Amino acid sequence: MGSEQFYAYRFTGQPSPYSSPNKKLPVASTLIEKFEVRNSPNCPFSNPFDSETLSSGASPSSFEVCTSFNQSESIHYMQNALQDIEKTLMASDEGPSGHTKWPQQWTHEPAGSNMVQPQAVYGPRYGLSGNNDSNINLKQLLIACASALAGNKIQEFENLVERARAFVSITGDPIQRLGAYMVEGLVARRELSGSYIYQALKCSEPVGEDLLSYMHILYEVCPYLKFGYMAANGAIAEACRSEDRIHIVDFQIGQGTQWMTLLQALAARPGGPPHVRITGIDDPVSKYARGDSLELVGNRLEFLSEKFKIPIEFHSLPVYAPFVTKEMLDVRPDEALAVNFPFQLHHMPDESVDVNNPRDELLRMVKSLSPKVVTLIEQESNTNTAAFFPRFLEALDFYSAIFESLDATLARDRKDRINVEQHCLARDIVNVIACEGKERVERHELFRKWRSRLTMAGFTQSPLSGYVNSVIGNLLKCYSGHYTLVEKDGALLMGWKDRDLMSASAWH
Description:
The protein has helices at residues 3-7, 34-39, 48-56, 72-89, 138-150, 154-165, 174-190, 194-200, 214-221, 224-239, 259-267, 287-290, 294-308, 326-329, 358-367, 388-406, 415-434, 447-456, 466-479, and strands spanning 245-250, 275-281, 312-317, 336-342, 373-379, 461-462, 483-488, 491-496, 499-507. The protein is α/β, with parallel strands linked by helices. Helix 5 runs parallel beside helix 7 (174-190), helix 6 packs antiparallel against helix 7 and helix 10 (224-239) packs parallel to helix 11 (259-267).
């Protein structure tokens, strides 16, 4: 089956079977360090919508704090912090007694008389073209904060951070919103609390028939995930177009959203559908974000099997990717093997963190399975081995483009946008800025580095379909004319304006 037939099913308007039937998860407020809640009303991790909901007595959002801490003191620490936040959220609008430093306790608007107004028209990225005070450039202020911290100039850093807090806002323009999270990441680095915040902010979802997960909202409102899924599915469809039995190993199955359109297309293949076996890998902690663990993914695939009349076999593998072995995958000689790495490999430690180099070791193990196709989708960013200050500059540039692109589809005061940025992007920003060593798990690399790794592991690059690329290009135009799509070095690069953000490639 050709890729043209496959992508005919992307725009059928079929209703999604992915409404979540999950039961309610235990309610937990967003967790953040004690000093941040007490000292900063503009702290981006305290959502104004959540606080209003709690204050009104209505049911708050169902946040699940997903942690993997084993130390009893860490658990005790977070429980105490959670209690403090719940008390703060339930407090009156006047704020905690004796609190005078930040009188606008839950406004989430910039404080002070020289607040930066939202831009009416975008200037260059980071530009504050709508600012009446020409002496304030928030980008330069954030860079100055990071520079002071990198130079261990603590008093200077504290003064700059206090100034920066007055100009950031989670409902402001892109640099103000990003600045809110970057300031907290810098403070977390100063206080050595980055790993606690990252674990508490691991993306969780409200559950129920009428609620979408934050990740699904992100999937719908911007094309980054769609780009990756379409590119990977197109490569798999091309490589396995004549196969009767297909085994897909997905190293980050998530909610299984990626496979709906591929399975629908395979079901309509001339000569009848193939038998499809899917091995879904996901870390054990992520089950809290789905409510019913990987069983929910299996139920969804069973639904698709009945609806599209295609035989689907699903095997769940709740194991951290570095610990996956050949035996766990049960590779069979009569099946065409497709291995999918969707925004996942950058979480694997490499030689700079672990002498065993789990990142390259996993690639060599996958190569030994003789896969028909391997798909790799990654962020186009260089934060793996960079020192703190250049890593901060790279993150500032990368996430500025991400935040700016969200404005194309979501109004700045929309609760959905705030939730997406707070719960799906903030944790990554904090980890990149505040953490080091094994605690820093957001370790992105540019495509040229991934190409080197895959080549050394024995892989050969496969060309991506020109038709698939054109379909993705048309999709991007539906979102904004500022999205870019270029083919470079055999990969497909998606970006926003002048910044590449995502890469997609196929290998065998």
